[in-house]
């Protein structure tokens, strides 16, 4: 079972907090990797908030390919940053040669393009880089988006933290939103692309669970958007559905829950908005999820959300201390991260609830 | 002494032989009266008693006498079909049909130059079913929990009607909420099992009524929204005007039988029908028209269908139809318009190698009026047909449903035109397992026909027993219009049997959904299945396991 966590703070926080949130939740042989997406960046990336940041891990050949492609397409490299490495004997980590975080400026021909054109270019570029490097695993292109940094690696999260110096709270790497997970997908092959959180065009999703409608979701999503690909994990489906409803269909957020875990027909027919809910249920049956799941998402505007499967078969808890709100699979993680918080105010969402934490750290919860 | 005439028919040439035990028989004659095929008769046979006497025994002729007997008639027309009504009615168990392994039936049955006709049970390959080479193999274990079939809520409903993709659904945002700006095409969410298309005519009025009663009971008493299709041939006007019409799907086929009455009843209808099925073809005799022999066109059939007493032929083609686009434009449009676009209209064809092409074309339906595609595969169809059609034409349903579903997937249009499959569902008696597997492969629901007859008391099987639906002499009163035979069917009991079966079916479906951890129908969830046959796995694109 994956444990997942999210930190949303008024202040820029260091990724060590993510490790403190996650490591108490470890069970047995459960920690097989570390992955995090940092959004609303501080530290070295703070001056480049509107410039696309490319996060990737690569072998030497992969870096060459990425650089050549970017140069050829007219991208202007503004900042190149890599975490300082601390190699030690006995670390459990599957290393690649490079972990690069590169800030670019748009090619000249796109400088005056509208937002949507620019965003489409970012996605197309990421997909092109992925395609270019995928066949021989020369590089793993995680995200290419302004103000978003992704780090993923296979191994013991504690050791991964040690190797990248994530235990040392320096000022370089900071963010107001960090989503994280300490387990590679074990149902399928352990590959870096399968590690949550997943990011697409401003939307981040990570999940603890088993999406038993994975094949249905995947077969449907594949034709919806060129960016819906990979499917190395059954949880990517949750991201693509969120992205499709929000960005493509532009439906209000509340309908995410209605699509992935629709109300039973009997209940639905008693609702005053049954016509709409039925229309959703019949037009998007292939986006329904089943099986045990708890999902954490981040929206482009920085709001953090949580929803669960319709039977609430996986745990999640939300707590905060006024400065920081965290979402965690288990309360022990919250206790380490936010020991001073009022535990009476912790929220344990139920199966029909939707939780949204806004940028003022106000937590909204409502029944589907 | 008599001379043997080799070409003369004997009972040993027939598929079934009657075994009669004179020691047990009390000569009541019930068996002869019960045999609707006149396969047995009461007769008198000569007997002679000879004994021997003397030191050197000499045969002495004793008395000559005659005895009454029950004997089988050696005639093609009156051949025993093995229905066993004689055995059923005999108080002393003195008589029964026995399968004759030396039968010469296939070569003598074409007497008079007529093709062999029979009812819809299979003759060939019935024991080699694809369904039985697939198992529900993805059981929820440690990574995700199974559900509790008894306690959890299960959503077991299927769409019947044209489903619009989300991007084309007329929704807009108002005050942070979605609102529909235009009405949607009609979609009924119904139980994923339809009582298939058997007409009054193919069925006796009692049998048809029993199904209708069962369906009404399932809806009204058990809230199970099972629908019944009328078959081609209309229905009683009283029913057309009743509130129960909402549980019935009207069928229109190439003969348009019954539609005169339906159209005339429209102004007085208090409910809309559940739907309309345009029948292009059926599983039993694909590419062949329908035929109701004049012998079965009793007065009530004439009244319901609005025809004189004569052979009733439904042509193999709908008149004037020459393309899919035209059918969508004209047939669908006119039938949608008939009920002012409130009633979903679907189409049914025989399964064929070209089903995917048909479905691909339907999926492009620009008018949003194609409410579903029903595919009737091999072993489907209930009515009388030529044996050569039944045994040697058609297409298995399983891979056809899968191919159609995957064709929709390739276009990202799965679910927009619901897929329904029929043809051999429940041949072994367990329809839930077959239905579930077909749903996992991409069907939204299934339709059953012959199974309903079995549930109501049909004694036919897939090994040549009875199968006499074509004769009008159905011994169980199900597929005959002979009032004496029809009386054999207890309509309430038959309806109760259907209700019981459906309730069990519903439980069994839950018992299949629960272990894979799904609370709603796993339409297209092919990963829940594994095939124990490599060729099946490869064709259906599901994992092979052994």
Give a quick precis of the structure.
The complex is a heterodimer of chains A (368) and B (546). Chain A is an alpha+beta fold.
How many individual domains of chain A? 1
Q: Tell me the number of structural domains of chain B.
A: 2
CATH architecture of chain A: 4-Layer Sandwich
Coarse morphology of chain A? globular
Q: Roughly what is the average pLDDT of chain B, rounded to an integer?
A: 93
Provide a descriptive summary of the structure in words:
The complex is a heterodimer of chains A (368) and B (546). Chain A has 368 residues and is an alpha+beta fold. Chain A has one domain: 4-Layer Sandwich (Glutamine Phosphoribosylpyrophosphate, subunit 1, domain 1), CATH 3.60.20.10. In chain A, 26% of the residues lie in helices and 29% in strands. Chain A contains 10 helices and 17 strands. Chain A has helices spanning 16-22, 60-72, 115-134, 157-163, 214-221, 236-248, 254-260, 265-268, 274-283, 331-337, and strands at residues 4-13, 33-41, 52-58, 76-81, 93-94, 98-105, 139-146, 148-155, 175-181, 198-200, 203-209, 293-298, 304-308, 317-320, 324-328, 353-357, 363-367. The longest helix of chain A is centred in the middle third of the chain and has 20 residues, at 115-134. Chain B is α/β, with parallel strands linked by helices. Chain B contains 16 helices and 22 strands. In chain B, helix 4 (205-220) crosses helix 15, helix 9 (355-363) runs parallel beside helix 11 (397-411) and helix 12 packs across helix 15. Chain B is elongated and about 120 Å long. The model of chain B has no long low-confidence stretch (mean pLDDT 93). Chain A binds chain B through residues 187, 209-210, 212-216, 219-220, 222-224, 248-252, 254-255, 262, 264-266, 273, 275-276, 278-280, 282-286, 288, 290-292, 310-311, 313, and chain B through 140, 143-145, 147, 152-153, 155, 157, 159, 163-167, 169, 171, 173, 176-180, 184, 187, 189, 409-412, 414-415, 516-520, 522-527.
